[in-house]
Amino acid sequence: MPVDRSEGDVNHGPRRARWAGDGVGPRSRALVERDAAAFLKQSLSTPCLSAVRKAEGIWIEDMDGRRFMDFHGNSVHHIGYAHPRLVAALKAQLDELTFAPRRFACEAAAELAERLTANAPTGPDSRVLFAPGGSEAIEIALKIARVATGRFKTVSFWDAFHGAGFGAVSVGGEAVFRSHGIGPLLPGAEHVAPFACSRCAYGFPSRSGAPDLDACKMACARMVRYALEKEGDVAAVVAEPIRAVPYVPPPGFWPAVRQACNEAGALLIFDEIPTGLGKTGALYSHEPFGAAPDILVLGKALGGAMLPLAAVIARAGLDVAGDRALGHYTHEKNPLLARAGLTTLDIIADEGLVERAADLGGHARARLDDMAAHDSGIAEVRGAGLLLGVEFVTPDGAPDNDRAEATLYAALARGLSLKVNMGSVLTLSPPLTIPRADLDRALDILDDARRETASGA
C-alpha cells in the first residue's frame, strides 16, 4: 500500500514511520523485512507498508488479520478479488488446457479475440493482439502506428502514465519514470500539456473545476492540433481518454483531437488500461465523449485481478504488419489468461457492473460534493463512475500534499486503503461489485479522516 504521488511516490517521512510503528503487526512487519532484503529497491513499490495474506471481494487482509477496504487495487479489481465464478473457471481451465505454444491456436484465446472485436469501438472487422501487460500492449500499438503510417513520431501528454517499458515511458509523461539516469528515450516522442481544467497549464480560469470554454476555447485541444501541424509527420496521438488522476476532459475535447488527427494523417490511440471495462460508468471510458480511437488498449481489470492480461484492438485497415513480429510473447495466447478475460467480461455483463458503477458513482459523488461544501481545503471533486478524486489545497490555493497524505494515513488507520495522485489528490477506485452499504461505510471513514486532518489532530 505505497503512497502514490504522480502515479505515485513512496513517503519516507514521519507519517510512514508512524504507520510502520503503529499500524503494522509483527507478522506483517516480518514479511515486509524479508521482502526488503530480497527485492531490488525502486520508487513506488519500496518500501512496502504491510503484507497481504488474503484478498477477497473488496477486502485485503494483512498477515496479522487486519482488514482494509481496498479503494486502490492497482485498478485491476473491477470484479473484486477472488470472484468465485472466475476461480471456478480457472480451475476448470487447468483441467482442460494450461498452455498453447506459439503458432498453435486455442479455443479460449480465439473466443476472447472474437468477443473483444465483435462490438469493438474501433468498428467492424477490428483485429486484436494480446500481451502479458499494459506496457507491452502500448508498445504493440506504437509499432502498429509506425508500420501503418510510415512515421515514427508521437504526440502525447505530460503527466500521463502508459507503462514502464522504454516505449511506454517515452510516450508517458511522469518524471519518476523518465529521469534519474535512465538515459535517452525513443526519438520523436513529443509532449503537450494535458487537459486539467482545475489546473490549466495554459492559465485559463475554471469555475469549481469546470472549464470556462468561452475563455480557454479548449487551448489544450488546440495545442494538440498545433503540435501535429508543426511536426507534420506524426504517427499517432497517444492518450488516456479519462486520466486516472482522475481528470475528465472538457466538452468537445476528443472530437477536436479526433478531427486534428484525421487532418494530419495521425492515428488516435486510447489507453484505457486502468479506466476501461466499466470503471467510469461506461464499458469503454471514451464512449461518452463522441470520438472513437483507431487503436484501443485494455489491460489491468481484463485479467480479473488474478492474471496479467492486456489487449490491443485495432480498426480495420491496420492489419498491416503480417511480415513483422509486433508482440510475439510466450504467453500471447495462453488459455488460462484468455479464460480469465472471457470470464471477467461475462461477470461484468451478467452482473450489470457498468450500470452499477454509474449508479454507485453518482451516489458517491453526491456525498463527496457534500464533504467539499463543508471543507474549504477541498478544491474539487471530480471523476466518473467509480473513479473519483478529491483534491486538497492550502488556504492560498496551492496543492496541499501534506493534508492529502495525512488523510490517506488517517483512512488507512480506520481500515480504508486509498491512493494519492499528483501529491494532493485522493483517488477512490473501489471494485464495481462493492455493496452500497460498504461504499457508504468507506465514505464515512473518508469523512472522518478528512475532519481529522482539517482540525490538525
From TrEMBL:
<feature type="compositionally biased region" description="Basic and acidic residues">
    <location>
        <begin position="1"/>
        <end position="12"/>
    </location>
</feature>
<dbReference type="InterPro" id="IPR015424">
    <property type="entry name" value="PyrdxlP-dep_Trfase"/>
</dbReference>
<protein>
    <submittedName>
        <fullName>Aspartate aminotransferase family protein</fullName>
    </submittedName>
</protein>
<keyword id="KW-0663">Pyridoxal phosphate</keyword>
<keyword id="KW-0808">Transferase</keyword>
<feature type="region of interest" description="Disordered">
    <location>
        <begin position="1"/>
        <end position="24"/>
    </location>
</feature>
<dbReference type="Pfam" id="PF00202">
    <property type="entry name" value="Aminotran_3"/>
</dbReference>
<dbReference type="InterPro" id="IPR005814">
    <property type="entry name" value="Aminotrans_3"/>
</dbReference>
<dbReference type="GO" id="GO:0008483">
    <property type="term" value="F:transaminase activity"/>
</dbReference>
<comment type="similarity">
    <text>Belongs to the class-III pyridoxal-phosphate-dependent aminotransferase family.</text>
</comment>
<keyword id="KW-0032">Aminotransferase</keyword>
<dbReference type="InterPro" id="IPR015422">
    <property type="entry name" value="PyrdxlP-dep_Trfase_small"/>
</dbReference>
<dbReference type="InterPro" id="IPR015421">
    <property type="entry name" value="PyrdxlP-dep_Trfase_major"/>
</dbReference>
<dbReference type="GO" id="GO:0030170">
    <property type="term" value="F:pyridoxal phosphate binding"/>
</dbReference>
